[in-house]
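Section 3.1: Structural characterization of target chains.
Under the original work plan, the team committed to producing a structural model for every single-chain target entering the pipeline before any wet-lab resources were allocated. The record below documents one such target. The sequence was received from the expression subgroup and is listed exactly as submitted; it comprises 152 residues.
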Amino acid sequence: MGSLSDEIEEYLKNMVRSSNGILVVQRNSLAKRFRCVPSQISYVLDTRFVMERGYLIESRRGGGGYVRIVRLNLGSATALLDLVGQVQGPGISEEVATHILARLQEERFITPREADLLRANMSRSVLGNSQEADHVRKRLLTSVVQTLVRWV
């Protein structure tokens, strides 16, 4: 069985799907449901529902606070190109590249096998951990996305 974070992520993804891409929940009620502290919910939202994975999070803290999770669609070639273009700067970290590949896989632009192969080739163990590695990673990812656009 997966971790609590995995369970929370799956639950939220299913809820977003069943609510046509927009879900509004309260952090405290989620924490009660999963018998955890609200900061655990915040952790999942901050690490697994990021822009690169296709989510926009809006939140208001406090007594009447809420979290709104919006699923952004990648249905067109333009949206696919914008995905990499949204990443600021000349490079992409391994973590951001992993998020983008996960999104491409979730949207069925690539297979799980292709995602694993690309992740392996863009890893720190292959490219290193430098600014130049981040530049190369972004160029690789841009090239992959440009190739995918021809197939959309």
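The helical segments are 4-18, 27-34, 38-48, 77-85, 94-106, 112-121, 124-127, 131-151.
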